[in-house]
Amino acid sequence: MMEELRRRLEQLEGQLADLTLPDAASSSAFTDVAEREIRMQAEQHMRTQARLVEMLTRQLEQAEQRNRQLEAELAQLRAASERQPVELILDDGSKYYGRVKNGRPHGPGKQTDMDGQKKIYEGQWAVEKYEGVGVCYHENGKTKKYDGQ
Fold this sequence. Notes:
This protein is of the alpha+beta class. It is built from two helices and six strands; from the N terminus they run ααββββββ.
């Protein structure tokens, strides 16, 4: 067993002696190869980045176009809602049915409780407030004419 280990050690020492450090010429060749490889990887990375920029630019253009379409649709809906009555839920939870301006009660309209069963106010509105002529409906069943702000 010891003899076998000595033989293996001699083999390894022989192999080690055969190994030599690269001389300056082979070292330069290795550096050139490594430099070319790094350049190729950098160029590929730049091409990949350029493709990503193109893809993101297209996506941004599509998103901006869709945004313009949606803004146009919203403007049409707002214009239509200002001409036609709509139903809204007001901040206090009551319902409003009437005309709106910029998404807020404006013009003739009616306010009811949450269930839509009991009237609270019917008349003119301006920027989400009673304005002009209208009628207030009280809990006790009485009504009161409203004229003003």
